[in-house]
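Entry 12.
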Amino acid sequence: MRWPPKRVRHDAGYLALRILLAAARLLPLPLLRALGSAIGVAALRLSRKQRGRALKHLELAFPECDEAWRRRTVVRCARHLGTLLGEIAWLWSAPRKAILARTEFVGLKRFTSCTGPNFGAMVITGHCGNWEWLNLALGAIGHPLTVAAREVYDPRLDELARRLRGRFGGDTALRGRSAGTKLVGALRHGRSLGLLIDQDIAAPGVWVEFFGRPAWTPSGAALLAVRTGARMVPIFAARLPDGTMRITVEPAVATTATSDTEATAARLTALLTAHIERQIRAFPEQWVWLHKRWRHQPGDGDIVWRADTPPA
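Predicted 3D structure (tokens):
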């Protein structure tokens, strides 16, 4: 049996998180970021396996870069993930005005023009920058999202995540049989959705090109857009050197129903993945290189979709 037992580890993690959230009410954001950054670097040094995985993934994605660059980027990624933890602790209790004062919106009208009292848009993003900040910032300006998310392994942590996302009217739709119904209902009631599509998870999907390699990618977002006619808007968060969180809204991706819904959704998934790849290339240290993005590979005869794959 692994020591300490899983229950003990979960209890310790939950207690540490509650202590961090309580302390965050008294600490300024720069200090929380610095503490989180230090924790991230320390965790990287203690885990050779995670460090090696991140280096391998960077080698696959950026073969043109040398090993020194990859090692620097892994350290910067660890700092980013730790900083993200400090930011989330701050977001837990930060006033609306404080969050917006540290947020820069670029191209916001591209999103707001796609929404109305009777229809919502679909925010498509990845684990870039601080995606939870993106969610709360949109809620803080009056556009709360219904976010599709996986259930966390510990119900207590799951409840904390729900409470964070719901601070300014946001909601969570846990993946499962009822998720689709909830998401469609949200759109019909004028709510916008938040969907992250940049991880290899056990969900219906397609093979798309990601950094030149096939990657299994959830296609449910594109399929939902095709079936409902909702506009898909790629939006990304990036932390700037001065600590500002820039929220960049890209032009909406129009969806048109066709006779081959599945193929259309696959092409759109490839196109959206290309948007995510461009964001990662711009801020490579602000993505989750620890994730096993290419752990599955297609078999003989499987189609790998690209952003420029022409209609059949």
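Annotation: The beta strands are 103-106, 122-125, 145-149, 171-174, 192-196, 205-210, 213-218, 232-239, 245-249, 304-305. DSSP finds eleven helices and ten strands in the chain.
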